[in-house]
Amino acid sequence: MELTPRTSAAPRRGRPRVLPLLVLGALLLLGGFLVVKALGSASTFYRNVDEAVAQKNSIGTKRFRLQGTVAPCTVERTGDGVSFAVTYNGVEIPVHHVGDPPEMFKEDQAVLLEGHFDADGSETFDSDLMIVKHSEVYKAKESERLAAADQGGRVPVSNGQVATSPGCAQ
Amino acid sequence: MTTQSSNTLAVPDSTGSRGTRIIGVLALLSMAALALFGLVLSPPDASQGEVVRILYVHVPSATFAYIGCFLTTFGSAMYLWRRSRWWELVAYASAEIATVFTAIVLVTGMIWGRPTWGVYWVWDARLTSTAMLLLLLLGYLAVRRLPADHEVRTRRAAIVGLLLVPNVMIVRQSVQWWRTLHQKPTLLANGVGAKIEGLMLFSLFIGFIAIGLVFTWLLIHRFRLAWLEDQVDEAGLDVAIAERRAEGAAS
Amino acid sequence: MSGNWGYIAAAWIIVFGGLAGYAIRTIVRGRSLSKQVPAEKRRWS
pTM for this structure? Predict the structure, then answer.
């Protein structure tokens, strides 16, 4: 119940109090400044493979996020995770990922990898966190299957690309 | 409304009216249709599988959270500029509803992210700016309810309310301005339906109608509740003044 | 893939449950406050 008499309120009604508004405004400006700062650093949320390779000398073995597409016919299970090649803009580098890849990890899938270049100076990327990057395109599974049947039975899973590696020469 | 014009005793003790009952029934029916199309009739997505069904509630909730923020900013401006108490109540009511919807957007987005991306949360620009939007909305509600003179509270809240639309713009544009994990917009890219097909698009369309009706129903009820709160507030103030006068007369 | 229905159920229950809960809270508060406000000050529409 908010029926308690507010004794201080009645006599002062209508007179604007400037100071609290100024303090609030200053706080909000500070918040806005932090927002811009925080979002400004979002422009380097990840580096694409070609950029990372170009900046390799300055990056060294610092930790960063790498974005690229899983190259077909390169995925291999290892004892502690998975190894594959990741490609972007024509540049391809090998990746050693420690840990289980996410469920939606597959060839030709865009992924974000968190980790660093290998300490031996090669272009190998050691990753321990993998995030699958989803595209904004939505397609029904059923119609894909029907289209596939029309084309003679090969079953594409992701946007018309073959998911597993039936075509990869081992 | 035959009962209301003549007889004051017939006014119901609630925030409902015939209009809200009609909207309410339509909202329930469309939510049932949304469940039917979103969960049963629409196909699984080629790359996401079944989890795409979460987006039929996630995306419309986001849109109406934005609309709620827009109403709050517009109402706050009308209050600061024209001293309109009606618009102040619209701003307050839609801010609370936008808070509920933004929370729903964040939670459903996290639940979608776990099976799709592999993580619940990432500090990318889209997710971070949406979290900030929720904080700003909570700030609006806190400032509006902070114990102070009524006019001080409403003015402070209205100033916070002005910041909501800029924040929404940042959320909307974040996927274009910065590199984000969150995908770019699907619906308004290259014309409606270019990147999403058939029954999936239709399910999303029903989602917009259903969530929109729920939003409208909530907004009307919450506005009337805010009006009642104001009336009780003022009555309480009158009682307080009367008591002080009585005290003064007695001593 | 079948395990993902758990995520879908959780999301939909949160949306439907959250909206229903908020709607009920609004209605209940409206009813209790209505009794404190004279009828001539709450003629809707």
Answer: 0.83
